[in-house]
């Protein structure tokens, strides 16, 4: 018998950690946004599974490596441990359509706004006996592609004003989140856990 779960899908750069303006390649550049760790802890305590989904085209562009991205993802969980929390799963997309690379082009369907990373997470949960309730699950990010990915995936999209803050672009394109928050903490406490 499968158990139904709620998932909080989170973009990484600009949503959980500060967007450095270019690709983050080292732990020294990686800084959590204020109260982001607390937000993740609150969501987990409320029963949400936490899944990070992040475009990392710097790999295809040769700016960063798979090893560096995976080290930063591990470091994120090390930082979250300061709030006695962690993410459950983390997925990243190394490809970029403008930088063809035979090693990474097969991952084009995972690059947000495509839904490949979300679908893979949902499939991985299912393989472990958990059914994701999409109608009770959220996708939080700082870009229009995050909102669009959430909508395409049947999740409830939330836009945060940290990072790129593409609120105006979402309005112009008619790709609308169900909620806009100043940051991850306010998204969780002001909308998701209300």
From TrEMBL:
Key words, A-Z: Carbohydrate metabolism, Cytoplasm, Hydrolase, Magnesium, Metal-binding, Zinc
NADP found in the keyword field: no
Pfam families (alphabetical): Hydrolase_like
Binding sites annotated in the UniProt record for substrate: 11-13, 19-23, 54-57, 111-112, 143
GO terms, biological process: carbohydrate metabolic process
A GO term for molecular function: phosphatase activity
CDD domains: HAD_HisB-N
Classification via SUPFAM superfamilies: HAD-like
Family note: Belongs to the gmhB family.
Name this protein carries in UniProt: D,D-heptose 1,7-bisphosphate phosphatase
Taxonomic lineage of the native organism: Bacteria, Pseudomonadati, Chlorobiota, Chlorobiia, Chlorobiales
């Amino acid at each position: 018998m499968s158990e139904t779960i709620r998932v909080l899908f989170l973009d990484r750069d600009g949503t959980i950690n500060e967007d450095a303006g270019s690709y983050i390649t080292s732990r020294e550049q990686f800084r959590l946004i204020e109260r982001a760790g607390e937000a993740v802890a609150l969501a987990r305590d409320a029963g949400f599974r936490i899944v990070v989904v992040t475009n990392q085209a710097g790999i295809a562009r040769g700016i960063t490596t798979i090893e560096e991205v995976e080290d930063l993802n591990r470091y994120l969980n090390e930082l979250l441990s300061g709030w006695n929390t962690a993410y459950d799963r983390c997925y990243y997309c190394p490809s970029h359509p403008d930088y063809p690379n035979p090693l990474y082009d097969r991952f084009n369907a995972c690059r947000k706004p495509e839904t490949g990373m979300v679908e893979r997470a949902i499939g991985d949960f299912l393989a472990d006996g958990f059914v994701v309730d999409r109608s009770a699950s959220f996708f939080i990010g700082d870009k229009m592609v995050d909102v669009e990915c959430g909508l395409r995936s049947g999740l409830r999209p939330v836009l945060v004003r940290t990072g790129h803050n593409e609120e105006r672009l979402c309005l112009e394109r008619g790709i609308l989140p169900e909620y806009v928050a100043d940051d991850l903490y306010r998204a969780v406490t002001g909308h998701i856990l209300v």
